[in-house]
Amino acid sequence: MSSELLxxxxxxxxxxDSGRPxxxxxxxxxxxxxxxxDAGLIVSAxxxxxxxxxIDPRSAGFDTSTVSDLAAWLDGTRTLADVDPGRYSAVxxxxxxxTMWDFPAxxxxxxxxxxxxxxxxxxxxxxxxxxxxxxxGPGGRPLVAGRTVTAFSDxxxxxxxxxxxSPFSLQEGLAALGATVEVAAPFTVNVRRxxxxxxxxxxxxxxxxxQAVTAAVRARVQANAGTA
Length: 228
Description:
Elements: E1 3-8, H1 26-38, E2 41-47, H2 70-75, E3 78-79, E4 90-93, H3 99-102, H4 107-117, E5 121-125, E6 148-149, H5 154-160, H6 170-176, E7 180-181, E8 191-194, E9 197-200, H7 206-227
Protein backbone atom coordinates (compact mmCIF):
# COMPACT_ATOMS: atom_id res chain seq x y z
CA MET A 1 0.00 0.00 0.00
CA SER A 2 1.43 3.37 -0.98
CA SER A 3 -0.81 6.26 -0.04
CA GLU A 4 -0.47 9.59 1.70
CA LEU A 5 -2.08 10.54 5.01
CA LEU A 6 -2.21 13.98 6.61
CA UNK A 7 -1.99 14.21 10.40
CA UNK A 8 -3.41 17.47 11.76
CA UNK A 9 -2.33 18.72 15.19
CA UNK A 10 -3.22 21.68 17.36
CA UNK A 11 -1.19 24.88 17.57
CA UNK A 12 -2.85 25.98 20.82
CA UNK A 13 -0.78 25.66 23.97
CA UNK A 14 -2.83 27.05 26.87
CA UNK A 15 -5.74 25.44 28.71
CA UNK A 16 -8.20 28.31 28.57
CA ASP A 17 -7.78 30.94 31.29
CA SER A 18 -6.24 28.46 33.70
CA GLY A 19 -2.70 29.29 32.66
CA ARG A 20 -1.97 25.57 32.47
CA PRO A 21 -0.01 24.44 29.40
CA UNK A 22 -1.60 22.04 26.96
CA UNK A 23 -1.21 21.10 23.31
CA UNK A 24 -1.13 17.85 21.38
CA UNK A 25 -1.05 14.55 23.28
CA UNK A 26 2.24 12.75 22.54
CA UNK A 27 0.78 9.23 22.54
CA UNK A 28 -1.88 10.23 20.03
CA UNK A 29 0.82 11.34 17.62
CA UNK A 30 3.49 8.68 18.10
CA UNK A 31 1.36 5.55 18.21
CA UNK A 32 -0.66 6.31 15.06
CA UNK A 33 2.37 7.74 13.24
CA UNK A 34 4.37 4.55 13.72
CA UNK A 35 1.39 2.36 12.83
CA UNK A 36 0.65 4.33 9.66
CA UNK A 37 4.26 4.18 8.56
CA ASP A 38 4.52 0.48 9.33
CA ALA A 39 1.51 -0.02 7.05
CA GLY A 40 3.27 1.79 4.20
CA LEU A 41 1.55 5.15 4.45
CA ILE A 42 3.47 8.36 3.82
CA VAL A 43 2.49 10.69 6.67
CA SER A 44 2.70 14.50 6.51
CA ALA A 45 2.01 16.94 9.35
CA UNK A 46 -0.07 20.11 9.40
CA UNK A 47 -1.55 22.48 11.97
CA UNK A 48 -3.36 25.82 12.00
CA UNK A 49 -0.14 27.81 12.48
CA UNK A 50 2.51 25.38 11.27
CA UNK A 51 5.84 24.68 12.92
CA UNK A 52 6.45 22.37 15.86
CA UNK A 53 3.17 22.00 17.79
CA UNK A 54 3.08 22.39 21.57
CA ILE A 55 3.18 19.06 23.42
CA ASP A 56 0.96 18.71 26.48
CA PRO A 57 3.46 18.27 29.35
CA ARG A 58 1.15 15.74 30.98
CA SER A 59 1.92 13.44 28.06
CA ALA A 60 5.65 14.16 28.00
CA GLY A 61 6.45 10.93 29.84
CA PHE A 62 5.29 8.84 26.90
CA ASP A 63 8.14 6.92 25.25
CA THR A 64 8.59 8.48 21.82
CA SER A 65 11.71 6.52 20.93
CA THR A 66 9.77 4.32 18.51
CA VAL A 67 9.64 7.35 16.17
CA SER A 68 13.32 8.21 15.85
CA ASP A 69 12.77 11.26 13.62
CA LEU A 70 9.88 12.71 15.65
CA ALA A 71 11.51 16.08 16.39
CA ALA A 72 12.44 16.72 12.77
CA TRP A 73 9.05 15.51 11.55
CA LEU A 74 7.25 17.87 13.94
CA ASP A 75 9.49 20.76 12.89
CA GLY A 76 8.29 20.19 9.33
CA THR A 77 4.61 20.75 10.20
CA ARG A 78 2.98 22.92 7.54
CA THR A 79 0.15 25.38 7.93
CA LEU A 80 -3.27 24.14 6.90
CA ALA A 81 -3.50 26.99 4.40
CA ASP A 82 -0.64 25.38 2.45
CA VAL A 83 -2.24 21.94 2.25
CA ASP A 84 -3.60 20.46 -0.98
CA PRO A 85 -6.16 17.92 0.28
CA GLY A 86 -6.43 16.25 -3.11
CA ARG A 87 -3.17 14.36 -2.60
CA TYR A 88 -4.26 12.58 0.60
CA SER A 89 -6.11 9.30 0.93
CA ALA A 90 -6.83 10.00 4.60
CA VAL A 91 -6.69 12.64 7.28
CA UNK A 92 -6.09 11.99 10.98
CA UNK A 93 -6.93 14.54 13.67
CA UNK A 94 -4.68 13.99 16.68
CA UNK A 95 -5.99 14.87 20.11
CA UNK A 96 -4.88 17.00 23.00
CA UNK A 97 -6.92 19.68 24.76
CA UNK A 98 -5.51 22.42 22.53
CA THR A 99 -7.78 21.25 19.72
CA MET A 100 -10.79 22.51 21.65
CA TRP A 101 -9.71 26.07 20.89
CA ASP A 102 -8.24 26.07 17.40
CA PHE A 103 -10.00 23.17 15.62
CA PRO A 104 -13.73 24.08 15.73
CA ALA A 105 -14.83 26.66 13.17
CA UNK A 106 -11.34 26.72 11.62
CA UNK A 107 -12.07 27.41 7.96
CA UNK A 108 -8.84 25.94 6.61
CA UNK A 109 -9.24 22.78 8.65
CA UNK A 110 -12.85 22.45 7.49
CA UNK A 111 -11.69 22.91 3.89
CA UNK A 112 -9.09 20.17 4.15
CA UNK A 113 -11.19 17.66 6.09
CA UNK A 114 -14.26 18.25 3.95
CA UNK A 115 -12.28 17.69 0.75
CA UNK A 116 -10.69 14.47 2.00
CA UNK A 117 -14.10 13.25 3.18
CA UNK A 118 -15.34 13.44 -0.41
CA UNK A 119 -12.84 10.83 -1.61
CA UNK A 120 -11.01 9.28 1.34
CA UNK A 121 -10.94 8.41 5.02
CA UNK A 122 -11.48 10.89 7.86
CA UNK A 123 -10.32 9.90 11.32
CA UNK A 124 -9.77 11.43 14.75
CA UNK A 125 -8.95 10.41 18.31
CA UNK A 126 -9.74 11.81 21.77
CA UNK A 127 -10.17 15.61 21.39
CA UNK A 128 -9.34 15.38 17.68
CA UNK A 129 -13.05 15.10 16.80
CA UNK A 130 -13.31 18.79 17.75
CA UNK A 131 -12.02 19.28 14.21
CA UNK A 132 -15.18 17.66 12.82
CA UNK A 133 -17.24 20.55 14.16
CA UNK A 134 -17.77 23.00 11.33
CA UNK A 135 -17.02 20.49 8.57
CA UNK A 136 -19.77 20.18 5.99
CA GLY A 137 -20.77 16.92 4.38
CA PRO A 138 -23.00 16.19 1.38
CA GLY A 139 -25.72 18.78 0.89
CA GLY A 140 -24.09 21.17 3.32
CA ARG A 141 -25.20 19.26 6.42
CA PRO A 142 -22.64 18.74 9.19
CA LEU A 143 -20.31 15.89 8.30
CA VAL A 144 -21.19 14.10 11.55
CA ALA A 145 -24.96 14.47 11.18
CA GLY A 146 -26.59 11.05 11.30
CA ARG A 147 -23.20 9.39 11.87
CA THR A 148 -22.01 7.33 14.85
CA VAL A 149 -18.86 8.71 16.47
CA THR A 150 -16.98 8.73 19.74
CA ALA A 151 -14.70 11.24 21.46
CA PHE A 152 -13.24 12.16 24.84
CA SER A 153 -16.23 11.91 27.15
CA ASP A 154 -17.62 14.23 29.79
CA UNK A 155 -16.80 11.58 32.39
CA UNK A 156 -13.19 11.59 31.23
CA UNK A 157 -13.05 15.38 31.39
CA UNK A 158 -14.27 15.18 34.98
CA UNK A 159 -11.69 12.54 35.84
CA UNK A 160 -8.91 14.60 34.26
CA UNK A 161 -10.05 17.77 36.04
CA UNK A 162 -10.32 19.66 32.76
CA UNK A 163 -14.05 20.06 32.24
CA UNK A 164 -14.34 23.49 33.85
CA UNK A 165 -11.40 24.81 31.81
CA SER A 166 -12.72 23.51 28.47
CA PRO A 167 -14.67 25.93 26.27
CA PHE A 168 -17.46 23.39 25.65
CA SER A 169 -18.37 19.73 26.04
CA LEU A 170 -17.06 17.83 23.02
CA GLN A 171 -19.49 14.99 23.65
CA GLU A 172 -22.44 17.38 23.69
CA GLY A 173 -21.11 19.50 20.82
CA LEU A 174 -20.99 16.54 18.45
CA ALA A 175 -24.43 15.37 19.55
CA ALA A 176 -25.86 18.84 18.91
CA LEU A 177 -24.81 18.48 15.27
CA GLY A 178 -26.87 15.32 14.90
CA ALA A 179 -24.21 12.73 15.64
CA THR A 180 -24.83 9.63 17.72
CA VAL A 181 -22.00 9.81 20.25
CA GLU A 182 -21.18 6.44 21.78
CA VAL A 183 -18.76 6.52 24.71
CA ALA A 184 -17.44 3.60 26.75
CA ALA A 185 -16.19 3.49 30.33
CA PRO A 186 -13.55 6.16 30.97
CA PHE A 187 -10.08 5.41 29.64
CA THR A 188 -10.97 2.14 27.94
CA VAL A 189 -10.42 1.39 24.26
CA ASN A 190 -13.36 2.48 22.14
CA VAL A 191 -13.43 2.96 18.37
CA ARG A 192 -16.37 3.70 16.11
CA ARG A 193 -16.43 3.42 12.33
CA UNK A 194 -19.28 4.80 10.26
CA UNK A 195 -18.43 4.48 6.59
CA UNK A 196 -15.33 6.52 5.88
CA UNK A 197 -15.44 8.21 9.32
CA UNK A 198 -13.38 6.60 12.10
CA UNK A 199 -13.11 7.96 15.64
CA UNK A 200 -11.50 6.87 18.91
CA UNK A 201 -12.43 7.93 22.42
CA UNK A 202 -9.13 8.52 24.23
CA UNK A 203 -5.34 7.98 24.15
CA UNK A 204 -5.83 4.29 24.89
CA UNK A 205 -7.73 4.02 21.60
CA UNK A 206 -4.88 5.39 19.47
CA UNK A 207 -3.56 2.02 18.27
CA UNK A 208 -7.02 0.66 17.48
CA UNK A 209 -7.97 3.79 15.54
CA UNK A 210 -4.76 3.58 13.52
CA GLN A 211 -5.46 -0.06 12.72
CA ALA A 212 -8.98 0.77 11.54
CA VAL A 213 -7.70 3.65 9.41
CA THR A 214 -5.01 1.58 7.67
CA ALA A 215 -7.57 -1.16 6.96
CA ALA A 216 -9.98 1.39 5.47
CA VAL A 217 -7.30 3.01 3.33
CA ARG A 218 -6.05 -0.38 2.15
CA ALA A 219 -9.58 -1.36 1.12
CA ARG A 220 -10.00 1.86 -0.85
CA VAL A 221 -6.64 1.44 -2.59
CA GLN A 222 -7.56 -2.11 -3.58
CA ALA A 223 -11.00 -1.04 -4.79
CA ASN A 224 -9.50 1.72 -6.91
CA ALA A 225 -6.96 -0.70 -8.36
CA GLY A 226 -9.76 -3.06 -9.27
CA THR A 227 -11.59 -0.40 -11.23
CA ALA A 228 -8.51 1.00 -12.97
